[in-house]
């Protein structure tokens, strides 16, 4: 608990050092959609959405909390076997913006918890298998902020997945959305 309080005070102290030079508003929220492409066999691409409140520590550094939900699924040619995967993620994030111009390329990283749910149903046998759990993971990312429009590419790495349903839960996501707030003062 002491470490958490010390960390909060350190962040507040360092952000106050840079507050006089800030060109951008302190708070912003990123919202948008995504197209997810899984890396393992057994499931096809899917879609989802995200919500990420952030705090601009400096004009070039932002910290936030990413909440993201994605659904991916697949079936065989006859539609007898159906596989559906649902993923929710709750990550602490950090982004570094390479400039303060209108078009701002960025790179970042998110670290946190992934909530997984998978269902596989075999119509011929009439049985299904459900796999659920929470796992640790991380997501390196790159992208562009074009005014308030945001484009991004993330690779979500979920550790410790042991599933008979899917080979891997890792997925690549193409993100498109917009930023509410956070513009120049």
How is this structure best described in words?
- The chain has 185 residues and is mainly beta.
- It has a single domain (24-181), classed as Porin.
- It contains one helix and eight strands; from the N terminus they run αββββββββ.
- The protein has one helix at residues 2-18, and strands at 27-38, 46-56, 61-75, 81-97, 103-122, 127-146, 149-158, 171-181.
- Strands 1-2-3-4-5-6-7-8 form an eight-stranded antiparallel β-barrel.
- The longest helix has 17 residues, at 2-18.
- The chain is elongated.
- The model has no long low-confidence stretch (mean pLDDT 83).
Could you write a compact summary of the structure shown?
The chain is mainly beta.
Sheet bearing the most strands, described? 8 strands, antiparallel, barrel
Number of domains: 1
Main sheet strand line-up: 1-2-3-4-5-6-7-8
CATH architecture: Beta Barrel
Structural class determined from secondary elements? mainly beta
Proportion of strand residues: over 45%
Sketch the topology as an H/E string, one letter per element. HEEEEEEEE
Write the layout of secondary structure elements.
Blueprint: H1 2-18, E1 27-38, E2 46-56, E3 61-75, E4 81-97, E5 103-122, E6 127-146, E7 149-158, E8 171-181
Antiparallel strand pairs: 1-2, 1-8, 2-3, 3-4, 4-5, 5-6, 6-7, 7-8
Q: Main traits of this protein?
A:
185 residues; mainly beta; Porin; eight-stranded antiparallel barrel; 1 helix; 63% strand
């Amino acid at each position: 608990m002491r470490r958490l309080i010390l960390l909060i005070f350190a962040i507040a102290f360092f952000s106050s050092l840079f507050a006089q030079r800030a060109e951008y508003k302190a708070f912003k929220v990123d919202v948008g959609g995504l197209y997810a492409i899984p890396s393992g066999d057994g499931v096809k691409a899917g879609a989802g959405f995200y919500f990420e409140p952030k705090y601009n520590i400096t004009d070039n550094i932002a910290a936030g909390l990413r909440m993201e939900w994605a659904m991916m699924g697949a079936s065989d040619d006859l539609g007898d076997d159906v596989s559906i995967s649902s993923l929710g993620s709750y990550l602490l994030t950090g982004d570094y913006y390479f400039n303060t111009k209108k078009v701002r390329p960025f790179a970042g990283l998110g670290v946190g918890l992934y909530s997984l749910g998978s269902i596989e149903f075999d119509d011929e046998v009439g049985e299904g298998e459900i796999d659920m759990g929470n796992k640790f993971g991380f997501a390196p990312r790159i992208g562009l902020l074009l005014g308030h429009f945001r484009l991004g590419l993330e690779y979500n790495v979920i550790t410790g997945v042991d599933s008979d349903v899917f080979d891997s839960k890792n997925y690549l996501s193409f993100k498109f959305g917009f930023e509410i707030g956070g513009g120049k003062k």
